[in-house]
Structures are given as C-alpha cells and as structure tokens.
Amino acid sequence: xxxxxxxxxxxxxxxxxxxxxxxxxxxxxILDSFVNSSEKLIQKLSSTLEGENFDINEKINLIKGDIxxxxxxxxxxxxxxxxxxxxxxxxHFAGLxxxxxxxxxxxxxxxxxxxGTINLLNxxxxxxxxxxxxxxxxxxxxxxxxxxxxxxxxxxPINPYGFTKLTIENILKDVIKSEPLEWRIACLRYFxxxxxxEFGFLGEDPTSKPTNxxxxxxxxxxxxxxxxxxxxxDWPTHDGTGVRDYIHVMDLAEGHLSALDYLxxxxxxxxxxxxGTGLGTSVLELINTFQKVNNISVPYIFKGRxxxxxxxVVANNSLAKSVLNWEPKRNLEDMCRDxxxxxxxxxxxxxx
Length: 352
Ligand code: NAD
Known about the structure:
By secondary structure, the chain is an alpha/beta fold.
C-alpha cells in the first residue's frame, strides 16, 4: 500500500489537504508536534468524512513528533516499513508562519523551519523517498510595485519568516542539482489562504492569538476581541490598506493534490509555482465582504504600519493553472461564509 507523509498535517492547510488525500484513496502518515494545532484531528476528519465507505482509523497514522528531532522523523519511516505502507512522497507543511513572531524570534524560526527541513530531507534521502511538495510563500518575493508577481520575479524577503522559506527553496534546488534524476520537488508559493471546509469541522485553529487577519476577523465577530487592528491606512493602494490575494483553503488543498499527481507522473524536476487567485483585495474590502455576507458587524481601528508588511502582494497564477491544470473555484464570499461557519460551529476551540 502506498502512503503519503504529511508533516504539519494537523494544521490549517495540512488538515484540509489530508481530507482530500483520504478521499483520493491515499493512506497517510501525519507527523505534527501540535505546536499550532490540535490532537483532535482524527475526530474532525471523521466528522467531515461521515458517509464515506472507508475506516479512517485504518488510513491515518497520526504521530506526535517534531521535525527538529531527526529520530521523530525516522520513526515514521520505520513504522511505514513495518506496517508495509511505503511512503512514496512527503507534503511538508510543518513550519512556523507568523511574520511578526519571526522578527521577534528569528532563531526559533530558522531552527524550526530550516533545520527541521534539513532533517526531513536527510531522512527522506536515507529511505529513498525523493518526492516532496513544500509549503513556500509569497513572502519570498521582493514586492515593490503593484504588479502581479511571477515565479521568476526577484526574491528578497523583508522578514525572517520569508527568508526561511527562500532558504528552503534554495536548499531544495541544491538537492536536485546533486541528484537530478532522482528528486521530484514542488515549491508551492501560497498567497493568503483563508476560509474553511464548507461542513465546518476543519478550519484555522491557532494555539495562540493569531497575527494573520482572517482568524482575527472571526474572533472579533464572535466578540472575543473588541476590534480588528488594521496596520496602516496610508499604503499606496486604492483605499490605503494592504492588498492581498486571498485564496480559499480548499482551492489551495486541491492545488496540492494536483501538484502531487503531476510530480508522481512526470520526470524528476523542481517546480516553483504560485498558488493564488490573481485577484487583489484590500483589508477594508475583506472586512466589508465578511460583514455583508454574514450580516455581522466587525469593528476595526487603524494602527501604524507593521514591520515586515508590504502594500500589494498578488499572484500571477497562470503558470500553476497551465502546468497543474488547476484553477481556484471559490470566491471571496465563499471564503467569508465558510470561515464564519467554521467559527460558529467551533466557538470553543479544541485547544482551550
Ligand atoms: P499551521 O500553523 O496551521 O500548520 C502548521 C503545522 O505544523 C501545525 O499543525 C504545527 O503544529 C506544525 N508544526 C510546526 N512546527 C513543527 C515542527 N517543528 N514539527 C512538527 N510539526 C510542526 O499553518 P498553516 O497555515 O497550515 O501553514 C502550513 C504551511 O504553509 C507552513 O509551513 C506555513 O509557513 C506555510 N504557509 C502558510 C500561509 C498561510 O497564510 N497560512 C501562507 C504561506 C505559506
């Protein structure tokens, strides 16, 4: 039986991707430290998959472990051999993702993201598993103008988080140079994933106060915080607030399935692809859409610009569309509706 190892699979994007892997018939190993997620993943996936004709407990091995610890990764590969479920590819989500935290704690970010990935690659090489889909980010780009970002545009991150992602991409380029006929690698540069699976059992469930905008909007709408702080009202954009490319997490998850499929059926190579919608939305437009779609008020206040932020970060997604035959299908209203549905169904997070 062939399996996929999903590091960080209990997290926001990982859990939605695991759902699709299971639906596609894969068995999965999930390695997660739960530093930013919950051990209740199987319960959430079971609820979402109710009615499917397979036993989820037979298809998932959920292992608590840290990619900073090589032995934790090796144990997963050993288990896969023992139970004869060979890991044919890794989808590598495990990482810390807060731009502002990365500025406060750069060493923690470098150690977790870069050192952790080096451990993973070493163990993959040892066990001759050389197919990997890596969670990169739009944070790798140098974003000085209002143009859509192409994969071959200059990269020059402005925060440690973005540097860790770019460094991992560079490591992966070196790895494939050393064994060009063996590795199949996809670096997927995500833009701004938000929303949740439409059933409301899976969603973004951070273990501490979120620093990204969408979970803050849902928490304010719930009354957990008084208002949203919008960092900067004087950015060079049409309404002065930052413009981002929001993408529904299910569209992003589908992009991973397409990338995996493509890699496993094509020649050894490294792909670098933007996963975004190509549509820019300002922070104010996001808040207004959320209020309108869900008929709820989300108070906000303006603060000064935040270090590590940019004015305009929007993808040119044409390469991913043509290479992967993938296309985002859900719009901003869907993202706002599904994200709020998840929050309403999970007022008390599993983690607290
Ligand atoms: P998330 O925090 O919800 O998920 C990451 C998961 O990795 C969590 O379950 C966490 O517990 C786990 N993890 C972190 N460090 C680990 C370690 N050392 N060992 C084992 N597990 C560990 O984040 P997400 O939004 O699902 O993001 C997934 C990946 O995508 C991350 O690498 C992130 O940097 C990247 N990314 C996210 C966004 C975004 O806006 N969400 C954008 C671009 C890139």
